[in-house]
Design goal:
Blueprint (H helix, E strand, L loop, with lengths): L2 H10 L28 E2 L5 E2 L10 H8 L4 E6 L6 E11 L2 E9 L3 H10 L2 E4 L5 E4 L2 H6 L5 E7 L6 H8 L4 E4 L4 E6 L4 E6 L5 E4 L6 H10 L4
Antiparallel strand pairs: 1-2, 3-4, 3-7, 4-5, 5-8, 6-7, 8-12, 9-10, 10-11, 11-12
Length: about 220
């Protein structure tokens, strides 16, 4: 399953929660000024760090240590697709932000196929898309696998001006429609989807892996 599609499929199954409202995500023991979505550290070698995690380096176990143990793991698959191995939080504090967060695990199609054969349960999410629960042995094994990407889902509408205020001017602006646009930050490994008719989405990869986000957009772009 293509990376961008797998993220969208899981988003459709989740319920909205407060996001990017100052004070809305304050929780005891959480520093409201750290781990914010726009606090991206670059290592100068094509890597990045956000929310205390390094896409392409940190493992699923690192995610639990950084953000908490309330992490659900499953294979998300559309019909005729092998699927993607994903883990998500329904609610996690990112500084003063409360958000939904999804990580895509860097698992090969062969490994995912084998996990599907051992899976104990599958349930439908949206239409024919399925969420497949892992066998206990596989749940333990995937903890050591690296994460490929991180996605954060806002639940209040963000306009383009607010995104630029927080993240700076994008390296590329790619309109999809009159109301939907991708703001691309290759140097940060970030794609921010601003949607006037729906929910916004922030997707993070290591900058050296930005093609994971950009290539599907180029393939989907209408011919001119």
């Amino acid at each position: 399953m293509k990376f961008a599609l797998s993220i969208v499929l899981l988003i459709l199954a989740l319920i909205a929660l407060p996001f990017l409202m100052p004070g809305a995500g304050k929780q005891e023991g959480v520093d409201p000024e750290s781990n914010l979505p726009w606090q991206i550290e670059l290592d100068g070698r094509g890597g990045s760090k956000v929310f205390g995690l390094q896409p392409g380096v940190s493992t699923l176990a690192d995610v639990r240590r950084a953000l908490g143990d309330e992490l659900e793991v499953a294979i998300v698959a559309a019909p005729q697709e092998v699927g993607a191995l994903e883990a998500y939080y329904n609610q996690v504090p990112l500084g003063f932000v409360l958000a939904k967060l999804i990580v895509t695990v860097d698992a090969s199609p062969e490994a995912i196929s084998a996990m599907r054969e051992r899976a104990v349960k599958a349930e439908y999410m949206e239409s024919t898309t399925r969420k497949i629960r892992l066998h206990a042995d596989d749940r333990a094994a995937v903890e050591g696998m690296p994460i490929r990407a991180i996605a954060v889902i806002p639940t209040v509408n963000l306009d383009e001006a607010t995104v630029i205020q927080r993240f700076g001017p994008p390296g590329e602006r790619l309109p999809v429609s009159d109301k939907r646009v991708h703001l691309l930050y290759p140097d940060k490994g970030l794609d921010v989807i601003v949607d006037g008719d729906g929910k916004e989405l922030l997707q993070y990869v290591a900058p050296r892996d930005f093609a994971l986000l950009r290539t599907p957009l180029a393939a989907a772009a209408p011919a001119r």
